Give the backbone structure.
Amino acid sequence: MSLLVVGLSHRSAPVSVLERATLAADTQVKLVQDTVAAEPAAEAAVLATCNRIELYADVDKFHAGVAELSTLLAQHSGVGLEELTPHLYVHYEDRAVHHLFSVACGLDSMVVGEGQILGQIKDALAASQELHTAGRLLNDLFQQALRVGKRAHSETGIDRAGQSLVTFGLEQLSSGAPVDVWAKGKRALVIGAGSMSSLAAATLARAGVAEIVIANRTPDRAQRLARILNENEGGASDVTARAVPMDAVPVELTRADVAVSCTGATGLVLTAESVVAAVAGRTGQGVVQGVGSARTAPDADFVRTASGTAVDDRAPLAPTSVGTEDGCPLEVATVQGTAGFSVLGEAAVAGLAAAELEQHAAWVDKGDAAARAPRAAGLLDPEADTEAIAALAAAVAVVGRVPERRRPERVAEAPRPAPVLALLDLAMPRDIDAAVHRLLGVRLVDIESLAEASADAPMAADVDQVRRIVADEVAAFSAAQRAAHITPTVVALRTMAADLVASEIARLDGRLPDLDDKERGEITQTVRRVVDKLLHAPTVRVKQLAAEPGGAGYADALRTLFDLDPETVASVSRAENNTENAKNRGRA
């Protein structure tokens, strides 16, 4: 059997795919159970976080294992296999070990060095132990991953490079200002009471916010978090925390300066309309969209205020020189009235008649008089003329504007007002409508924008040291696994030798029935000592050799040389796994 991991993360897939592939808790349970039930896999565990979904398994066939695990991920995530496959990565044996150890150290996190992943790995192990899907291999792997992660954080300065996703998100909201300065005295709303939301609340309290409101679907959890904040954080930061039901979020949002949302909801918690209403309720003014923003709906040029009034967000267009230069055959008033036409700098003349397009193109080209003379005299081939006009019209249809050689004018962008509401969405799938990005007066940071920001974040010098730790730990784990692989064979060999001794002593009793107990005991001990001494050197040596790369072949050699029964070896292995699993369930 061999370790295989198939997964996708923020490094391999866009946030839109990760968002759709998110696995609910009950879906993760079903995925693990179905993986173990599949033919190639004997053990399975799922590591699912806000920016990664990874399926670990102990498989006996590589290609069949990859196909099976990929299919199961697609089925349970609801994303088609053809769409999901380009974003999947596969690691096998030592590379799979190296990957998990790197993840545990925070090297593969969106924010390098963050320590939250250790808790998520621990949860993944506990879930697999609870479901009895983690055997010796995955138990050993995940437990050593936890040790490696702790070692990296204790022996290096990776914590200086790393920070929690919450802290990184708040830094993006503060736009470069120190978070404690930016947050001082603000009112905060935290939606959700899970581990990420709790971390967000504690971080905001330490940053100096004046008030934290916790909203959660389960009131008890919200009240417990508020009580912890009041007891543990209040003395240090004078923060006041209170719990509210989820239906109070719209009202609390009108009072909040910053809101953090991280729930397990499958739909949106905050829509663009609810954010517009909250800001309007706070400022008494409507909210419009930003200039040049993406359009995601047929009426995306408009945003409705709290009163339901549609506000046109299209700012006046920048001045254009179309139709203003001497000799230009187009007049701005005429052009703008043409269906499908828009003016943006030196931009599109789409929707004009072919003759007008041809006239404008000829004028822009500014060919010499000799080149234009034949056209004026009507000497050009009409068919060639028609083809040129048709090609020009086709180009307009593709690029949206008349091809021209002049450099387009820069479009003046309307300045964005300072945000009156800061939103941090740490959920996957998202809690806050992405359309909020286009609202003026609101600043939204979500997983997608965090991924873009983290791509340019500098890495600490300690990362190299952590990588060396990971490499050493991978080598040690692989050696231990190879040595453990031969243990059932050695045990089976010694069991066979013990059975032979017992059989020969029984035969001796039949031949020499007059032996007393003392004499029989001395003979038995002597024979056992001889057998033990004969087996000691080769079994110790074979364990040492098995720990080296390629050492798995020594187990096969022992089984062949001593004609060991494969079923006996397998039964020893199963017995050891059962014992190990019982211990690990106790640890979980």
Residues 291-323, 335-352, 367-372, 584-588 have pLDDT under 50 and may be disordered. DSSP finds 23 helices and twelve strands in the chain.
